[in-house]
Amino acid sequence: MTDQRATDAGAESAELEPTALEVRNLAMSYELKGGEIVSAVDDVTFSLPKGRSLGLVGESGCGKTSVALTLIGLAAGNARVLGGEVLLEGEDLLRLSDEEMRLRRWNDVSMVFQGAMNSWNPVYTVGEQIREAMDLHRRPKPKAKEARRRIEDLFNLVGVNPDMIDRYPHELSGGMKQRAVIAMALSCDPKLIIADEPTTALDVIVQEQILEELRRIQHDLGMSIIYISHDIAVIAEITDLLGVMYAGKLVELGTTAEIFARPRHPYAWLLLSSTPSVTGPRRVLAPLEGEPPDLIDPPTGCRFHPRCPFVSDQCVAEAPPLSEAEPGHSIACWRHEMTPVGLSGAAPS
Q: Which of the residues 89, 148, 151, 349 has the least number of beta carbons within 10 Å of its own beta carbon?
């Protein structure tokens, strides 16, 4: 996503386009059996215009999936929302009761879960399982013929032969099962879809096919999508906007094209510098040394400072806020001006 369309989605997008989702100062934690508290999401703020796509990227354990599960109201039983707002077209989902959230789920916001293609119940047909989701969440409950027509339309939309509706999961390939998962997520016409590692465990050819289907569906339906992945190449291909997370915090936010061309936070720069690219001139990859911090006892100040090549005393003592360094590009770093500008060969084509 380095074309002009992506670049133009910068500072003006939030002002000119209606907002589908706005997350403000979201904080949540997990309480472990021993009473220890894991600070999984800390003061995360971002907005997503209608019809746009946002990628959340970062190392495993950085809080991406915790953000997603909190947005949809499906965080684990030991999770605690500490503060913030999740506004879906102006309605705060965090203030809804469990029953109210159940009715919003799938109708207003749905999710393609990580590894979901392996979660199909083997004793029911794929169509029966999608129908069950529709029965639980659509009001009024669709009649049998209406539901079948809807599932047939969805299978056509995601590139699966409608004859597969009456097949059992073991009769479908991995790519077909993943497409059927996407069909289930679309079954109640949600305004927002969250896709958590939607191409995990698929070979690269099928991955590209699934991503192309998601791009086409988003364009055709005008949906808003949040993609979660540790695979930067995937995020580069399919998103308009990008949020880089580290240790529960959002450290850089802007257009995908801008961040890939000019990463400003040292973590984002090192993350991209350590990623090989088949485009552009040859370059030496820069290693991202060290390990993410323990979120039971995170570092003082900036959580990235133990691994940062530009660390200062201020970084150790004081946590930097996520603030706008330039229109449409926000960075949580006291020394972002030290980060080398541009990555030769790192930007996606």
A: 349
